[in-house]
Specification:
Length: 412
């Protein structure tokens, strides 16, 4: 079934049992479950002019399928998620590979045995690999901190090499930091893989939807009980009713088209936007994407090249590697990290998580606690970075919770 679209001005809110804000994986999976499992009529409010959230893909002028909000590669260890998504798309068996451009030489990322050979030469690398295996075992992932904790200075040298040539400048660009500001706890977790496995992810299930993500979302949302209103912003159609006029007064009800809406409201947008940033904005790191099309079969040697010591952009992705598309043209995308305040790129990509921002987020979330039919869900509403599989599994669990509450209105 095709997606049923409507103009928000034309709908009667009394025709709907549930409202979902946002049509990324969080919103779309919740909407599908509530429509299919609980036979609820679900209204989706989406502020963009398309469905599929940040997974949205489209064909560019050269006929290449590109991702508009950053490259998305599906990977999961959850059989539940993989089985669920298989209902809405066939999948190609893509395994992502990433190389670091190290002054014009390519190193596999995460750094592995082959990277060490390229960086240190065969003889020294053989010695380092022998020491790594003797210390940690073969086929293990070890962190820079674990390497630095060893007495052998050559293992610390490996850690220093990876830190300076693969991690530091990339991270500085990504987050707009000076070297001193780079968080040591993140550095500690950077891995070295004592292996020849050069796949970026090692999850059981990996791949790409055969006809693209947008088609997957069309199948997910193509249900007779789901209606989608595009270009509709929650804050412009919700009337928030608070317990009092105090700044921290909890939300008591949400009115839509002059009706108190008492069915479940699944909200997957940023909470600060809903409350018109009354406690200040929740900050994000943003991105600017620059696309280039070439008359070549392939422009890069693999799906993504990270620029870890040079360039202003962090990485380039070539979509044909991801999608398996063939043809004589190719499109690549360069990612330039930007401030969220940059007027050109005010899209929230990566939550900037620290104690202050977490506290501000909690303040927003507490406003919604008292409203029993309000469910914040997904990477924006929870102010976290989540991979797609985590969002799908959370949306399935939230839908079960909502249905349980509908069946047991008196349960705590
Ligand atoms: P979103 O996809 O952002 O969907 C939220 C939707 O809500 C959007 O459509 C938005 O327009 C809408 N919305 C927001 N506010 C409002 C409002 N006020 N009113 C109405 N609508 C609203 N994960 C992976 O597993 N693999 C990857 O390779 C991967 N690559 C990534 C690359 C980048 C650059 C980034 C930033 C993330 C990547 N992710 C990846 C994570 C992935 O994007 C998220 O897991 C996914 O987007 C979460 O879905 P969501 O529904 O929570 O949010």
């Amino acid at each position: 079934m095709t997606v049923r679209y409507a103009d928000f001005r034309d709908i009667a809110i009394t025709d709907f049992d549930a409202v979902v804000v946002g049509s990324g994986f969080a919103g779309a999976v919740a909407a599908r479950e509530l429509a299919e499992q609980a036979a609820l009529n679900v209204l989706i409010i989406e502020k963009r002019d398309h469905i599929a959230g940040n997974m949205y893909d489209e064909y560019d002028a050269a006929g290449i399928l590109v991702h508009r909000y950053g490259p998305h590669i599906f990977h999961t260890n959850s059989q539940e998620v993989f089985d669920y998504l298989n209902r809405f798309s066939a999948w190609s068996a893509y395994q992502h590979r990433v190389l670091a451009d190290w002054y014009g030489t390519y190193l596999p990322v995460p750094v592995n045995k082959s990277s060490l050979e390229i960086a240190f030469g065969d003889e020294k690398a053989a010695r380092l690999i022998e020491k790594l295996i003797a210390t940690f075992g073969d086929e293990r992932k070890v962190t820079l901190n674990e390497l630095r904790a060893q007495a052998d200075p050559e293992l610390a040298e490996v850690a220093d090499f990876v830190y300076e040539n693969v991690f530091l400048y990339y991270t500085q660009k990504q987050w707009g930091l000076t070297p001193e500001e780079v968080d040591p706890s993140v550095t500690a977790r950077v891995p070295v893989f004592i292996s020849r496995d050069d796949r970026y992810f090692q999850d059981t299930y990996q791949g790409m939807p055969e006809e693209g993500y947008t088609r997957l979302f069309e199948n997910l949302l193509g249900h007779e009980r789901i209606t989608v209103c595009l270009e509709t912003e929650a804050e412009s159609v919700f009337e928030l009713v608070f317990e009092s006029g105090a700044e921290d007064a909890p939300l008591q009800a949400i009115r839509i088209k002059d009706e108190d809406f008492e069915g479940p409201i699944v909200y997957t947008g940023p909470l600060d936007e809903l409350f018109l940033a009354r406690f200040g904005r929740l900050p994000y790191r943003s991105l600017d994407f620059v696309y280039e099309t070439y008359d070549e079969n392939y422009h890069l040697p693999c799906g993504t090249v990270n620029y870890t010591v040079t360039e202003d952009y962090t990485r380039i992705t070539e979509f044909k590697w991801l999608t398996g598309q063939t043809g004589s043209k190719t499109t690549i995308m360069k990612e330039y990290p930007r401030s969220y305040d940059d007027p050109a790129t005010q899209i929230p990509y990566y939550a900037i998580i620290d104690d202050d921002n977490d506290a501000r987020y909690e303040r927003y979330r507490r406003l919604t606690d008292a409203l029993p039919n309000f469910y914040p869900l997904g990477r924006l509403a929870q102010y976290r970075y989540f991979n797609m599989d985590k969002v799908v599994v959370d949306a399935l669990a939230a839908s079960r919770r909502i249905m349980f509450r509908l069946d047991h209105p008196d349960a705590p």
